[in-house]
Every structure is written in structure tokens, then in C-alpha cells.
């Protein structure tokens, strides 16, 4: 069927084996952890048994972009090829759908700060009569960071539920109804984890009905789950509460001017705390932040303002469902703020308290150090089939790091190797004589080794870095030494960078972590990937530090038990950008000398595909020139 439906389709033994393993897991309500190397075709491998099983299956992907691709592109191809009549549905988190009630309130508002906001609202107004789904991703020209978006969507906290005047026409309710009636439902990890953490009411009605859950890009789950099983107070939450309070006050209690005034004080208190926290990009423990006297004073003001607002909202709550909702949100945020400020050390048992500063906001977080037991406990509530799959789950063939972090025990574990001929299609270049990555001139040395390859290949390259500092330094050096077009992360949106890379033949894309995975550029457009160094997580990350301390206290080795496996999985993702198709050919250069000089380097090499290797620059250059000759 696929040979007829898809031109150029080739049968792949690993794909068939993976499909059989997933079919068996669904039939037996078992648990499967499967690494599927690049080119196996895992998407079709789980779609075929999901569509043919006759069971209710939830398919979860890592991002909304992948979710849309799976639902709108891959799933229709498989359904048509198999000729099966299966009801399918796409379900996103409520923040993706227009809220009719809040949109109506926004239309009455005349205090937009910019002309852009008014124009964006007009785009939504023109689109609304034409949409069936209410998915705001359909609105052409509406930026993802538009000022109006928080005003025209609902959250769990501000949703009026059954008391909403637009409940019967609610896009979120309609999407959930379609999902409940469907056989195969496509969701994403954020929505899935929100339900597991009991944060997203409504979706919980789906999970108990599922016969199988397939989690693609499963390597992302442990870190994502940490956020969902934790707690947060953010500037965004506080400012949205203040603005929603004003909106509902005008609507439900117009004579209560004190409510509007106190909400304004809350917004000012949140902004004052942001100023006191210092420059953007800072992350650290609660203790580090509270050492700054202005921060403590700003937190006192914020707490006092929340308390005043809570008292007034308690009196106003009976005036309407909107103000009642604002009262509950205010109460919850104050409780979380007080928990975060408790006098004990920042690491309390199984949680770590920390902060992060953004350009216009901040977050105060309490994050669990490990989510394995929490995840396992939630998973046990749903005795269905569970399939975890990704191209990067194992470290040198061992799944232990992944399964321990998610509390998975007794699962079937299998590696399905890539069908690509890496020894023929690619070359791994490990330049000799590179300095230690901690030395100041490391980036300069990496650029010096990389430049001849970039020129010989005529661009067509990704230059991937583990930090913005290294990226910006490399960009500055390259600008003075090459005529190639440089596309530097931070200078334009990520999507635009990728489009321009594909459209500009002699370009070099310089990116950090967000370009290490989820990017698919095939053919001659990308034939050189350069990685500056092994992607060990930043040692000053507060959650990382706390986890490493906990491993050490338990008698483990933090470096070998956690840091190395994490870095191996990240490196596999970065290396996976190079060969995406059976016809692709290219060179992977990793500048870090620890791959060959450190004892743990072999674990990284054993986890990479079986590339041919060289340390000789002339061999690397000859390989790239041969690619250009073939392309010509």
C-alpha cells in the first residue's frame, strides 16, 4: 500500500520490526521503550498499528509544530494508504484556542498600548467568522508574542466553565468533544503532562478511556515533567491577574474603584520586583536572590498587595463568576509565593526553590529533584499500553538513564538501528591539537579549524554551540574572515532563520540548543554540521546543582550517573541533524578534544552512529570536495 501511495517509498526492516513491537504492546497492554535511529521511520511505524488496532490511541509529540505535521500530513497519508475508516482528532492546550467570552471583553477595551495590538485584534476579528476550530495558529500575520493573545485566550484559572455565556460555542469544549469521540487523538507533551499533573481539567476525561498512549520524542519527557510537577509564580501570572481583575470589575462591579486601584498596584509591584531582580538571563537559587536587599523589600510589597487584593476580591466574588475566579487565582498565587519564601534552605527534601529573570518578566519556581516516582504513580492509574520512542533514548545501548528518570520498570527495551549506511554517507572529523574547551581561545581555535571546511563546502552548514557566548564570539570572528552568508540565532526568529537557510545556497546557520533537535533539512542544502563541544549542561543551573548534590548524597557519582548520559543524548540529537535521508551525504565535525582524550569520551563515541572517522584536515577537505563534485 505504501509503495503505491508514496513515490520513492522503500521497505525498511527496522521500521517493520518497530511496528510489530508496537502492535504487540498495544495488543497486550504492555510497555515498550524503543530507540529508533534516524531513518527508521518511527512515525509510520506507530501510526500503522495505532490505526489498525481498533483501539482508542493517544499520540503525543514533543512540540505543537510536530503535532500539526503528524495530524495534517503524516496521519492522512497512512490512513489513505491503509484504506481504514478511523475517526481522528487534534487536541491542543487551551492557550491555542480563542476564548469567545474573553475576546468579546477585549473588543470593549480601548487601552491597547500599541497600534500593533489593535491591528492584531482586527486580524482575529476578521478570521473568527471563518474558523471551525478556533485554533489561533490559523490567523495569518498574528505573531506568537502578540500583546493581545493573553487577552483573547482562557486559562484554567480564568475559565468560567459551565457559567460562561459562550459555553455551548466554546472552541476548547468542542475540541475536547471531538477528541472524546475519536479513535486516534493527536496531542502534545505539554497537554499530556498538564493532565498527569492534574492541572488541565477536562482532558483528564480522555486519558482514562485510552487503550494505548504513544509518546514520540520521549527523551524530552523527564525535563518537561519537572516543570509540570512543580509550582511557579511568574510576572505574567501576576500581571494577567491584575488586568483580568480590572476587566471583570468593569463588567461585574463598576462602582468598586478600590478593586481597580489595587489591581493596578499589583501590576506595579510585579514590575518593581522585576527591576529589583537585575539583568535578564540570571538563574539561581532562592538564597542567592534573597541576598539582595531590594528584592526582599519588593517581595514584601508584592505579598502585601496580593493580601489586600485578596481581601477586596473576597467581598466582590459574589458579584459574578469572573471576580470569583480572580479571587481564587489571587489566593493560589499568594500561597505559592509564601511557600517559595519559606525560611528553610532552597533545597527542601525533594524540591529546589529557584528563580529566573527574563527581559520583561521573572519566575519563582519550586521544582522536584526527581519525577520518576511521581510519573510512575500517575501512570499506574491508567493500565493501558505505553510506548516511549525517540531517536535518542539509550546511552551506548543502555536505557537505564531514561527509565530511571521516569520511574519505568519492567518495560520491553529495544534499539532499532538506522538503515542508513553511515560509513559510506558520512565522515566524522575530530580535529587534533584542539585546546581544552575551558581555555579562553577555544572558540577562536574551533573557528580556525572550521573555516576551511565552511569555505570548501560553500556554506551549507550548521555551526552548533552549547552557549550564546560562544555563538556570538564565533559569529564576530567569522564576519571578519568569510564572505559566506551568516544566519545568527538571536538576530531573527528561528522559523525565519530556517527558511532563509534553505533559500540561501552559501549560508552558515549559527545556533544553540534549539537547533540541536527538531530541525529537518535534507539533501544538498545541509552537508556539514560542526559542533563546538560536548553539550554538558551549565554547571550553575540551580536545579542541576541540586540534583547532582542529591545523587552525591545517595552515594552515586553525579558526573557519570547524570551529567555524562544527559550530554550523550544531547550530542546524539545534534549529530542527528546531518544525515536525514538515504541519499544524504555529509561531514560531522566535533571540536571537543575530550572525545578522544578523556576516559568518558568513548561512551559518546559508542553512542554515535558508526561514522567513518578521521583526525586529518586534508581528509576532511577531500571528502567535502568530493561531495561538491558529485553535486555539480
Summarize the structure.
With 632 residues, the protein is an alpha/beta fold. The chain contains 26 helices and 19 strands.
What's the arrangement of secondary structure elements?
Elements: H1 2-5, H2 13-28, E1 31-36, H3 42-52, E2 57-61, H4 64-82, E3 88-90, H5 100-108, H6 115-127, H7 149-152, H8 171-181, E4 184-188, H9 189-196, E5 212-215, H10 221-228, E6 231-234, H11 235-252, H12 257-276, E7 283-285, H13 286-290, H14 293-316, H15 321-340, E8 347-348, E9 351-357, E10 362-368, H16 372-380, E11 385-390, H17 400-405, E12 412-416, H18 422-425, E13 426-429, H19 442-457, E14 461-464, H20 468-479, E15 485-488, H21 494-503, E16 507-511, E17 528-531, H22 542-553, H23 558-575, E18 586-590, H24 594-597, H25 601-607, E19 612-614, H26 617-631
Parallel strand pairs: 1-11, 1-12, 2-4, 2-5, 3-4, 5-11, 13-18, 13-19, 14-16, 14-17, 15-16, 17-18
Antiparallel strand pairs: 6-10, 7-9, 8-9, 9-10
Description:
This protein is α/β, with parallel strands linked by helices. It is built from 26 helices and 19 strands. A seven-stranded parallel sheet has the order 3-4-2-5-11-1-12, with helices on both faces. The protein has a seven-stranded parallel sheet with strand order 15-16-14-17-18-13-19, sandwiched between helices. Strands 6, 7, 8, 9 and 10 form a five-stranded antiparallel sheet that branches. A hairpin with a 4-residue loop joins β9 (351-357) and β10 (362-368). The two termini are 35 Å apart.
Amino acid at each position: 500500500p505504501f509503495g503505491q501511495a508514496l513515490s520513492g517509498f522503500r521497505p525498511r526492516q527496522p521500521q517493520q520490526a518497530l511496528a510489530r513491537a508496537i502492535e504487540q504492546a498495544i495488543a497486550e497492554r504492555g510497555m515498550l521503550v524503543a530507540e529508533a535511529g534516524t531513518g527508521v521511520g518511527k512515525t509510520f511505524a506507530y501510526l500503522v498499528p495505532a490505526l489498525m488496532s481498533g483501539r482508542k490511541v493517544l499520540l503525543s509529540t514533543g512540540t505543537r509544530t510536530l503535532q500539526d505535521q503528524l495530524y495534517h500530513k503524516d496521519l492522512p497519508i497512512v490512513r489513505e494508504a491503509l484504506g481504514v475508516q478511523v475517526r481522528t482528532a487534534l487536541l491542543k492546550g487551551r492557550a491555542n484556542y480563542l476564548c469567545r467570552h474573553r475576546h468579546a471583553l477585549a473588543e470593549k477595551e480601548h487601552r491597547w498600548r500599541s497600534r500593533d495590538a489593535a491591528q492584531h485584534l482586527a486580524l482575529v476579528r476578521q478570521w473568527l467568522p471563518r474558523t471551525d476550530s478556533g485554533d489561533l495558529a490559523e490567523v495569518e500575520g498574528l505573531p506568537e508574542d502578540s500583546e493581545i493573545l493573553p487577552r483573547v485566550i482562557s486559562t484554567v484559572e480564568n475559565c468560567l466553565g459551565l457559567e460562561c455565556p459562550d459555553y455551548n460555542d466554546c472552541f476548547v469544549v468542542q475540541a475536547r468533544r471531538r477528541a472524546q469521540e475519536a479513535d486516534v487523538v493527536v496531542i502534545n507533551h505539554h497537554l499530556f503532562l498538564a493532565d498527569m499533573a492534574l492541572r488541565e481539567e477536562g482532558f483528564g476525561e480522555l486519558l482514562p478511556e485510552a487503550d494505548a498512549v504513544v509518546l514520540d520524542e520521549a527523551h524530552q519527557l523527564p525535563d518537561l515533567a519537572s516543570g509540570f510537577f512543580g509550582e511557579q509564580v511568574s510576572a505574567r501570572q501576576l500581571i494577567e491577574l491584575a488586568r483580568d481583575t480590572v476587566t471583570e470589575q468593569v463588567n461585574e462591579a463598576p462602582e468598586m474603584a478600590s478593586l481597580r486601584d489595587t489591581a493596578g498596584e499589583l501590576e506595579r509591584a510585579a514590575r518593581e520586583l522585576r527591576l529589583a531582580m537585575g539583568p535578564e538571563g540570571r538563574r539561581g537559587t532562592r538564597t542567592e536572590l534573597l541576598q539582595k536587599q531590594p528584592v526582599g523589600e519588593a517581595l514584601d510589597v508584592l505579598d502585601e498587595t496580593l493580601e489586600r487584593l485578596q481581601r477586596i476580591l473576597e467581598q466582590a466574588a459574589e458579584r459574578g463568576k469572573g471576580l470569583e475566579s480572580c479571587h481564587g487565582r489571587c489566593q493560589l498565587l499568594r500561597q505559592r509565593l509564601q511557600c517559595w519564601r519559606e525560611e528553610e534552605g532552597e533545597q527542601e527534601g525533594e524540591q529546589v526553590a529557584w528563580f529566573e529573570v527574563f527581559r520583561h518578566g521573572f519566575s519563582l519556581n519550586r521544582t522536584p529533584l526527581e519525577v520518576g516516582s511521581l510519573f510512575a504513580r500517575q501512570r499506574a492509574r491508567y493500565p493501558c499500553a505505553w510506548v516511549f520512542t525517540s531517536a535518542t533514548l539509550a546511552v551506548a545501548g543502555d536505557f537505564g538513564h531514561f527509565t530511571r528518570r521516569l520511574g519505568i520498570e519492567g518495560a520491553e527495551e529495544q534499539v532499532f538501528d538506522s538503515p542508513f549506511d553511515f560509513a559510506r554517507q558520512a565522515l566524522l572529523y575530530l580535529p587534533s591539537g584542539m585546546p581544552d574547551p575551558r581555555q579562553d581561545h577555544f572558540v577562536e581555535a574551533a573557528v580556525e579549524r572550521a573555516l576551511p571546511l565552511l569555505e570548501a563546502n560553500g556554506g551549507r552548514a550548521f555551526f552548533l554551540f552549547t552557549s550564546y557566548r560562544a555563538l556570538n564570539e564565533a559569529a564576530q570572528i567569522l564576519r571578519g574572515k568569510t564572505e559566506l552568508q551568516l544566519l545568527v540565532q538571536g538576530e531573527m526568529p528561528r522559523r525565519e532563520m530556517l527558511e532563509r537557510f534553505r533559500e540561501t545556497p552559501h549560508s552558515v546557520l549559527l545556533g544553540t540548543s534549539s537547533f540541536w533537535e527538531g530541525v529537518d533539512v535534507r539533501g544538498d542544502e545541509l552537508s556539514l554540521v560542526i559542533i563546538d563541544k560536548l553539550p554538558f549542561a551549565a554547571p550553575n543551573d540551580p536545579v542541576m546543582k541540586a540534583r547532582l548534590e542529591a545523587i552525591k548524597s545517595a552515594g552515586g557519582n553525579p558526573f557519570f550517573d547524570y551529567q555524562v548520559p544527559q550530554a550523550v543524548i544531547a550530542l546524539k540529537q545534534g549529530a542527528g541533524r546531518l544525515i536525514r535521508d538515504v541519499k544524504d551525504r555529509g561531514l560531522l565535525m566535533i571540536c571537543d578534544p575530550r572525545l578522544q582524550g578523556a576516559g568518558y569520551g568513548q561512551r559518546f563515541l559508542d553512542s554515535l552512529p558508526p561514522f567513518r572517522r578521521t583526525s586529518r584536515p586534508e581528509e576532511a577537505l577531500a571528502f567535502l570536495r568530493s561531495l561538491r563534485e558529485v553535486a555539480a
